[in-house]
Design a protein that fits this description.
heterodimer, A: 481 residues, 3 domains, three-stranded antiparallel β-sheet, 16 helices, 20% strand, B: 486 residues, eleven-stranded mixed β-sheet
Chain lengths: 481, 486
């Protein structure tokens, strides 16, 4: 059988979380009323000039360092020329042959171990606005432009064609997103458009040296969609090759509903961007000292943190991976462990209870109604025997809904565990009286019958009786019968 | 003597002595405008009401004893490619015919802060592309010395307004000679500062790496006065240079003893008008007699200047002018079917022939497959031209040349011959390519009575030596005192 290999390169665009836009003072806030974050500069009035936002350069350098790139001491902004109504100057200020950073790599975990995917280049550019098409609408019948997004700083991260499968593309993106989020330079939220990705993909026969003809795939709105689009595209290309069709180099759009790609009209992609150096901006000179200062602001990245979690807390690779994927989650975990030093228990509660609840209501760790201190408090109550594990889950639920302290909930709802042997003994007596059949069966040697009796005791105490004590006392009393 | 006939420094003195008010000056200027503007057409927009308000405001400040600014109460005309807030900025183009600027250019703000009174917006070649002010959507401006002749361009309106006393001061922009050449044609002083000396924020871009704003005045002192106000770093313009600005009026020293002046042999060749050559050589002789040391020098890449300029400037312009698409402001062609047609018709109807020619030239020069041969090669030659000047300024303090190869030519004479028109800037273009400062001042008149301009060039950020030489020359000649009969 003939075997094919897949070659994928990804182009990721990330919105930088700066307060103001790349070339003017307008806010970058997402979701504001249309055209409320617009000024003469970002709407391309005659005579305006761009001024580079230093913070955006800093964030780019920070990202470049985290991705092991070489930061250029001198880089150049360039104009990329094309006409579109969401691009007020009808050119985009971007970078072309002298980008801010080049030649880095990102390490990803694959089935065959960890490996590096090359980062060809990272550059800084401005985003375009948004069009709202109302053609045919009774009120407007036309298209409207919102310039709020115009000029928001974008980081473009271009990978080398080192990715060998759609699944690996997914891993690359997740790993990249985690790093960028750790650096706190972007939210990388695909839904809000703060991360976008285009993929170049080609296939070739194993052993062949030259690359196959590639297709550029656009219009995917989630990492899973990217993976699916690539899977579709790989199949399509192999099928084409096997039926000896010619694959043409083209841009294809992903159709999420139909789960297929289709070619973009060639008119839309026939661009000669006529790049040339932006004469309104002087070359961007980055001093070594500045780079080093930025390097110092990079704290532990997901990989290092995962390794440390395995080492320090004796977590499994999987658990450590989940807990360190998000900086906020890892911070949460460590805060709880600091107050309640039992990493194994904390891991369970954070991964199962907390993440489960948060996911159910679609919230981030940062928005958790239960603080790390409160969770530690709950776990301590459980350890001390004040509440049972089962009750703890009830208390957790209540904490999540009300934000109250566990101690308060336990007292208010009288959930303290019953550990008084006399009290439990009294209830056991009642249960034995009420369930003569079960007692008889137990007497006949049916060990299982005890389960029913325990259940009855727990019911009478609303689950507050200490289960070990109930067991012990029940057995004693049954023996005496 | 009418107030409009005086210079800014003379008027300032009279105001300080409380002999006259700003309102009187402004009224005098508008009287003059009412007399001659119909014949000349220096202005696209006049702002009389606002000007009188500004003048009264200055007079009020002076009555209260407040310092009203360095050009307080003085009428200034602004070339119509610089934005005054809430005033029309057309660039003499149909496509911006209805554009009211929502913001103010840095130079306008500086002038306002120093008490200047804005008379109006002056006519120009559309988007500053031209050497005769004939490429204006609103009609040609006439040379006040002879109505059949062009005033030069692209800042022809500003030069004419100063020469005909329709304003006291004016500002223009110079991308390839657009201040100096009209100054020469109209017999006034015009200075193009070093690239980066004056902020371009609010100047509607033609060619960003070449454009520079500068002053027009009736004499060198007025040009120096205006330089003091215009110059300085601006955080809104990344290409403006953060250097201390000297007090340029301190350069007004009547002494050129020992100053080394170079005469580039490449500027005195075929195509140079005989009368111009004679006037310039006489001026050089006078400077020599006043104590300057004259050297023949060589600027070997001079002959490539025009070719390099007509690749770089249109390339930048092709991108700078892309924003005029009818989407957000300005002219939009009515009733178009789709987006592409909207772009094509708006731009096809909105731009004049010369602007379209240059957009096409630039688009071509930047196209894939041609970029290296045209744009990139031009940039390399530009570096060589700059090197010529660097080397020359190791030997001399300034360079003297004619401003233009001929005096003003007749209206209509070159409109159908773009190449001939482009050669009007042959002596001024290199200064823009090299980023160096240059000044033009009157140094004689042709037999027909048209002014001839003398150009001085200096190394970057040495406008002081230009002002000093020009001032000395002016003090020893009478050319600047002549007035056109209108």
């Amino acid at each position: 059988m003939v075997e094919y290999e897949t070659i994928i390169g990804l182009e990721v665009h990330v919105h930088l979380k700066t307060e103001s836009k790349l070339f003017c003072g307008c806010s970058t806030e997402f979701g504001a009323a249309p055209n409320t974050h617009a000024c003469p500069v970002c709407t391309g009035m005659p005579g305006i000039l761009p001024v580079v936002n230093k913070k955006a350069v800093e964030y780019t350098i920070k990202s470049a360092l985290a991705l092991n790139c070489k930061v250029a001491s001198r880089s150049i902004f360039a104009r990329k020329n094309y006409f579109y109504p969401d691009l007020p100057k009808n050119y985009q200020i971007s970078q072309y042959d002298e980008p801010l950073a080049q030649n880095g790599y990102l390490e990803i975990g694959t089935d065959s171990g960890r490996r590096r995917v090359g980062i060809t280049r990272i550059h800084l550019e401005e985003d375009a606005g948004k069009l709202l098409h109302c053609i045919g609408s009774r009120e407007i019948d036309g298209s409207l432009v919102d310039f709020n997004r115009c000029g928001v700083p974008l980081l473009e991260i271009v990978s080398s064609p080192d990715i060998t499968s759609p699944e690996e593309a997914y891993t690359y993106l997740t790993t990249l997103k985690n790093i960028i989020r750790y650096l706190e330079v972007s939210d990388c939220d695909m839904e809000k458009g703060s991360l976008r990705c285009d993929a170049n993909v080609s296939v070739r026969l194993v052993g062949k040296k030259e690359l196959g003809v590639k297709a550029e795939v656009k219009n995917m709105n989630s990492f899973r969609a990217i993976q699916k689009a690539l899977e579709y595209e790989v199949k399509r290309q192999i099928k084409a090759l096997e039926s000896e069709e010619r694959i043409i180099q083209e841009t294809r759009l992903w159709d999420e509903k139909k789960e297929r790609t289709y070619p973009m009209r060639s008119k839309e992609e026939a661009h000669d961007y006529r790049y040339f150096p932006e004469p309104d901006l002087v070359p961007l000179i980055v001093e070594k000292e500045w780079i080093e200062n930025i390097r110092k602001t990079i704290s532990e990245l997901p990989d290092e943190r995962r390794e440390r979690f395995i080492r320090e807390y004796k977590l499994s690779e999987y658990n450590a991976g989940v807990l360190t994927a998000e900086k906020a989650l890892a911070n949460y975990f460590e805060k709880v462990v600091k107050l309640y030093n039992n990493p194994k228990v904390v891991t369970n509660w954070v991964m199962v209870e907390l993440l489960g609840r948060l996911n159910a209501v679609n919230k981030e760790v940062e928005e958790s109604p239960i603080s790390p201190g409160q969770l530690a408090e709950l776990l301590k109550l459980m350890e001390k025997g004040t509440i049972s594990g089962k009750i703890a889950k009830t208390v957790f639920e209540e904490m999540f809904n009300s934000g109250k302290n566990p101690q308060v909930i336990v007292e208010e709802k009288k959930l303290v565990q019953i550990t008084d042997e006399k009290e439990i003994g009294k209830i056991v007596e009642e249960v034995l009286k009420e369930n003569p059949d079960a007692v008889e069966e137990y007497g006949k040697g049916k060990q299982k019958a005890i389960g029913h009796l325990v259940g009855q005791v727990m019911r009478k105490t609303q689950g507050k009786a200490n289960p070990q004590l109930v067991n012990k006392i029940l057995k004693e009393k049954l023996l005496k019968k | 003597m009418e107030l409009y006939e005086l210079s800014a420094h003379e008027l300032s003195e009279k105001m300080e002595k409380k002999e006259i008010s700003s309102e009187e000056i402004v009224r005098s200027i508008y009287n003059r405008i009412n007399q001659v503007e119909k014949k000349l057409h220096s202005f696209v927009t006049l702002t009389e009401k606002e000007a009188l308000l500004q003048a009264r405001n200055i007079d009020e400040k002076m009555r209260k004893g407040e310092f009203p600014g360095r050009v307080a109460g003085i009428p200034v005309a602004i070339k119509d490619n610089m934005c005054i807030k809430n005033v029309r900025t057309t660039c003499s183009s149909h496509i911006l015919g209805n554009f009211i600027s929502p913001y103010e250019a840095t130079v306008v703000k500086r002038l306002r802060d120093e008490g200047a009174v804005f008379i109006g917006k002056t006519n120009m070649d559309e988007f500053a592309m031209g050497s005769s002010t004939e490429n204006s959507y609103f009609g040609v401006t006439r040379n006040p010395w002879d109505m059949d002749y062009i005033p030069g361009g692209s800042s022809g309106g500003s030069a004419t307004a100063v020469a005909s006393d329709e304003t006291i001061l004016a500002i223009g922009s110079d991308t390839g000679g657009s201040i100096r050449q009209p100054a020469a044609c109209c017999g006034v002083v015009g200075l193009k500062p070093t690239y980066g000396r004056v902020s371009r924020y609010g100047l509607v871009a033609f060619a960003s790496s070449l454009d520079q704003i500068g002053p027009f005045g009736k004499d060198v002192e007025d040009a120096a006065l205006l330089m003091n106000v215009l110059s300085g770093y601006d955080e809104n313009d990344s290409t403006s240079v953060n250097l201390d600005v000297p007090d340029f009026t301190k350069s007004l020293i009547e002494n050129v003893k020992g100053i080394k002046i170079g005469v580039p042999k490449e500027y005195f060749v075929k195509g140079l008008d005989g009368e111009v050559e004679r006037a310039v050589k006489q001026a050089i002789e006078l400077l020599k007699n006043l104590g300057a040391k004259i050297f023949e020098i060589s600027l070997p890449h001079t002959e490539y200047g025009v070719a390099v300029y007509y690749l770089i400037a249109p390339s930048e312009a092709s991108a700078n002018l892309a924003r005029y698409d009818g989407v957000r402001y300005g002219y939009r062609s009515p009733e178009t079917e789709d987006l592409l047609e909207e772009y094509e018709k708006t731009r096809g109807e909105g731009f004049g022939a010369e602007v379209k020619r240059r957009i096409m030239l630039g688009t071509y020069a930047l196209s894939s497959g041609y970029y290296d041969a045209y744009y990139l090669k031009a940039q390399k030659v530009r570096t060589l031209i700059k090197k010529d000047f660097d080397e020359a300024f190791e030997k001399v303090d300034a360079i003297v040349t004619p401003t233009a190869p001929t005096p003003a030519f007749k209206i209509g004479e070159k409109v159908d011959d773009p190449l001939q028109m482009y050669l009007s800037d042959i002596f001024t273009i290199s200064a823009n390519l090299a980023g160096i400062p240059g000044i033009s001042q009157p140094c004689g008149f042709s037999k027909k009575g048209l002014p001839i301009g003398l150009q001085l060039l200096a190394k970057p950020f040495d406008e002081e030596v230009l002002l000093r030489i020009a001032y000395t020359y002016e003090k020893n000649t009478e050319w600047h005192k002549r007035k056109p009969k209108l």
